[in-house]
Amino acid sequence: GITLYAGKQELISSGTLALTYGVKYGLVGRNGVGKSTLLRAISDRTVKIPDFLFVIHVEQEVDGNQCQSSHSCFPLADQLSRCRSGGRGPEEELGLEATIDQEDEGDVTLNEVYERLEELDSDSATARAANILTGLGFDHAMMQKPTREFSGGWRMRIALAQALFLQPDLLLLDEPTNHLDVDALTWLEEFLAAWDRTVVIVSHDRGFLNQVTTHTVFLHRKRMLYYGGSYDTFLKVRAEHMANQSATLKEQNRREAHLKQFIARFGQGHKKMARQAQSRMKRLKKLQEEKAEVDFGTFPASAFVT
Question: pTM of the full predicted structure?
């Protein structure tokens, strides 16, 4: 039942969002169909998703310090590690202060608290932050600088590093490769491919989608269509599907022409032939109702690739 608008323009009509945990999805479609709008709607929870899911959205452009501005004076690696709690204890970050001394409070158990803290790996947070930053191209000297000293492209990398560090249940990436060099891109491909979290990616980088994603969501004609496989697999399956539709339509057109010819020839003739023509008219009507709808909204392989 998802319906999204950009102003008065309807982008998605009664769409269905279906994501499986741990799967990497490529969200593809022509420019302007609503890919970025959909990611933003999921992040803002305009699209209703379970409240317990931790979602992070890394947009195409980063404005200012996406990490806490109160820590902008700290060295980058230390600042990133502080992002896990915003200066609070890890229990507060999880909203679990009241449950620490209780075995079971509401929907959260003490065991789940400890598991989450273990996931955050509090003791080695700075080292883990440094490892992610190194992978994204930050050297030791850069890690000693505060966030506010970096330009927009590097701030984008910082926002991406923060998202990976925080380990969300659902990570939404909008053109994450825009500001990455080859080394950082290769590292990110390997990191995401091995990650056990759910990721939805919008990208014009065909190679990146093929390396990382295992499923494809095609935003087309105000619907979300789901395909198993990477971007190249999606292109192949879609081309085959359209070829099958075209072949079916061609055969239906041939039968339709034959029926029309018979009706035109015998519809007003001998009573027996006229009855046959009436029968043909019923078959023609049924054929026209069941006629295959061929989706000719095809696109070249380069449509999403720069």
Answer: 0.70
